[in-house]
Amino acid sequence: MSATISHLSPSGTPLYQQVKRAVLGTLASGEWNQGEAIPPEKMLAQRFGVSIGTLRKAIDELVLENILIRHQGRGTFVAIHAHNQHFFRYFRIVRQDGVKTYPTPQLLSFRRMRANGEAREKLLLGPGAYVFEFVNLLTLHDSQVMVDTICVPEALFSGLSEEQVRNRPGTVYSLYQEDFGINVIGTVENVRACTADADHAGWLHVPRETALLEIRRLAFSYNQQPVEWRVSRVNTEHYEYIGQEHQSH
Amino acid sequence: MSATISHLSPSGTPLYQQVKRAVLGTLASGEWNQGEAIPPEKMLAQRFGVSIGTLRKAIDELVLENILIRHQGRGTFVAIHAHNQHFFRYFRIVRQDGVKTYPTPQLLSFRRMRANGEAREKLLLGPGAYVFEFVNLLTLHDSQVMVDTICVPEALFSGLSEEQVRNRPGTVYSLYQEDFGINVIGTVENVRACTADADHAGWLHVPRETALLEIRRLAFSYNQQPVEWRVSRVNTEHYEYIGQEHQSH
DNA sequence: AAGTGGTCTAGACCACTAC
DNA sequence: TAGTGGTCTAGACCACTTA
Question: Which CATH class is domain B87-246?
């Protein structure tokens, strides 16, 4: 279907960048499904009319961005971001001794509502747009540590129901992926200190006004499309947030 | 000086990884100075006895790790991590509207002391080891926003003086680099909520017990050598911490 | 004009996986 | 055994910088 990419770099962008965009476009078109292998490198190189080296450079970047996953001898696969292997990429709360554990979620509320100003701004919604807002209480090591208030646009999640959220088998992001075809491939998180209001004090079993960590996260899909706005509040008495981490090996 | 790298991958590691290690070794040996250009790619390829493609793959990784910086047409340079261009890699506090600004530091205290348990653990020091501890108050947009309590081992910073810290022309990390040859190339940060003690309340002009953000950072040099332990406390009423940020483009 | 890194090719061979 | 990605080569040409 897709034509050979022009060699003449008419737009001045490198060939491998054009190939990368073409691969991203094919991904967005749904031609290759989540978790499945994409065609082998030689075939893709031929399809896009470039050398294997150039094709590999494009794929390299997509692998670096966790959009594709390579397995030597098996093939190159469309990443499933909600997979367990990627879980701790998005879940960055650990016990203060460094131990990571999977949280147990409990749905506290679910409703359809008009987006407030901040959600509208973050999710790029027009005035009066509707969102689903649901609240999750997360338990780690048998203690209530964190409350997520999650906001997703109705336009993208048409028909989302409380039962769907409550009875999801995996993570929220795997629900987005499997039921709505929406892939979270990146996030931006800002962090502040806040204090517990009456609701959070009850949920987290702490006194009102206790200092909590507030994580404000916007999640994106392929075309930098914002798909979820989430505010998490964490009792950091025994847990902490893993922030920036860069290091050479 | 350095010999050609064996082609036979005797250790089973890829050639480009061996080249990368050789380049890192040459960096650590001091043969190439901070901020200066390393030899051109063709020369390095010849020196290590590999093709340019292989040499480039090794350099690619070092560039990705911010240890080297490439400038097309000029050369490849040993990164100076304290440079302004990298400042916001390590300084991740921004105003809530997203505006970044350089902080104005004010030295509040400086002393030589025995490392406490946590500093000893993080900095891998023996019992009774000495550290320098100094406290910096940071002002952003004319308001006192953040207090850094910084702890560095005397063994690495022998002779560090209060005047040296107070009168440094640039950042603390550029002081480490220029006066002690210590390069911060990576950090690990954990974040919690805390409350203001009497000192911090005074410095930050907030009531005692105000909820603050606490950032606990361990900074590393080349061989994963920990060189600085820092606890920052931030008034996040108008500012926030930029956490994880990954996104495709 | 000369020198640098940036891109691209058209292969070769190796390591790993599946059958 | 066949097919996959991983590594490596020995160049070519382009874009940018410096002088």
Answer: alpha beta
